[in-house]
Amino acid sequence: MVNRGIMKKIIRFTIACFSCLSTAVFAQSYSDDLYWTISKLDGDSLKIGFKDQGSVQLKGLYHYNSTAVTNDFFSKLVYKSTYISEEDKEGSINRLKAHNRLGVDLSTSLHGTYRSKKDTTVLFDAGVAYREFTYAYFTKDMFKLAFQGNAQYAGQNAVIGPSTLKQWGYASLFVGVQKVVGKELVIGARLSFIKASFYRETSIGEGNLYTDPSGAYVEMSAPFHWYSQKRPENPFAANNGWGAGVDLYAQRFFKKSILTLEVKDLGAVNWRNMDTYTGDKAYTYEGQNIGDILAPGNSYISSVALDSVAKELGIEKVVQNKTTMLPTRLQLTYLYKLNTKWAVKGDLNYMFLKGYLPFAKVAAYYAITPAFFVVPAITVGGYGNINTQLGLSATVAKTWSLQANVFALEYFIAPTSYSGHGLEMYLTKRF
């Protein structure tokens, strides 16, 4: 037998990326802003057109969710970096299905709008943003290998694919326009110029990892590819490529309702100098069984150089440019006004990612006062299962508004049983 390091390297090479989570984001949306929705409700009928001459808005968003990995597990792994016991792992392992999803979103943007004094039917907008987005789709065995090792699979095949992990990081400058067409329709478009920060992708096709009963060897039989750029110390300032994207928008007004259709992040980025590793055959390695790869002192996941790993596995590294599509999202929104106090809103989203399920949200808008709204909501699908949210919107001094959308109930009341938490905030000054 060779030493234990060889065994660790093959395990690490196929699964380590699924145990190291990052952050992500959605771009600025036309219809997600609570103030935008509430501004349509003050009066007996829904309004079309742009009331304000302009506005400046600062937005921040953070959101984590998963169908399997609990809030408690995620918190200890990412926020606290503390030891994760077997008991901690069981909460997530018990929720695992044949295939599982995980997403982490992080964004910030500064965004302004302007219309001329003479024309209320055209609104221009521009802004800057930074975005990170992570999406993982993984098998039950992939998670158990990453956090419990391969000893449990002695004499068995662990199903490691299909699984995928993708991470985008980029800054953008965007400009757009919205136009009232006729008496019932608003259309809009926004063009984004993208400066690439970093990108990583690991995809494993359908296949297995077999562990010899005596621990003498492991055999991986699954095609894979790995594209990797090192995350820069200052992601916002980094320049590892260029790209462009577009958002498209159409909104139909009825007497008591609004129907909105959006296409977001339709575009591509060309990433420079991408380290590429590809394998399409069976690999056999001798070694010993490996224990918990996240045990204290077991730091090889983050410290090893990929070049040396690839060399020992007989995999040639190729440095090349790579063009990838942005994580395009479709969103359909329907708002119905019951009266000047109440409205209901439904959202249906879909992202073009492997294994992603449609995301649905139903929200109720209630005006405690004309300047203060509460917006409870229920969501299902997307990265997670069923979750609750609570939105708050307050208008101060007539021209300032602060909105917060909080996803925290499951995090506080049942962190070991559920997933999903985050916060979305807007600070808006209107002119």
Explain the overall architecture.
The chain is mostly beta strands and 431 residues long. The chain has a single domain, classed as Porin, CATH 2.40.160. 14% of the residues lie in helices and 54% in strands. The protein is built from 8 helices and 18 strands. The protein has an 18-stranded antiparallel beta sheet that branches. The protein is globular, with a radius of gyration of 24 Å.
Features:
single chain; mainly beta; Porin; 18-stranded antiparallel beta sheet; 54% strand; globular; disordered N terminus
Give the second-level CATH assignment, the architecture. Beta Barrel
Q: Sketch the topology as an H/E string, one letter per element.
A: HHEHHEEHEEEEEEEHHEEEEEEEHE
Q: Approximately what portion of the residues adopt beta-strand conformation?
A: over 45%
SS field, number of helical segments: 8
Please give the domain count: 1
Give a nutshell description of this structure:
By secondary structure, this protein is mostly beta strands. It has helices spanning 4-15, 34-38, 71-80, 86-93, 140-148, 300-303, 306-313, 409-413, and strands at 54-66, 99-114, 122-139, 157-181, 185-211, 217-221, 224-228, 241-253, 257-279, 282-286, 317-325, 329-337, 342-351, 357-369, 372-382, 386-396, 400-407, 421-430.
Q: What's the topology here?
A:
Elements: H1 4-15, H2 34-38, E1 54-66, H3 71-80, H4 86-93, E2 99-114, E3 122-139, H5 140-148, E4 157-181, E5 185-211, E6 217-221, E7 224-228, E8 241-253, E9 257-279, E10 282-286, H6 300-303, H7 306-313, E11 317-325, E12 329-337, E13 342-351, E14 357-369, E15 372-382, E16 386-396, E17 400-407, H8 409-413, E18 421-430
Antiparallel strand pairs: 1-2, 1-18, 2-3, 3-4, 4-5, 5-6, 5-7, 5-8, 6-10, 7-9, 8-9, 9-11, 9-12, 12-13, 13-14, 14-15, 15-16, 16-17, 17-18
Helix pairs in contact: 1-7
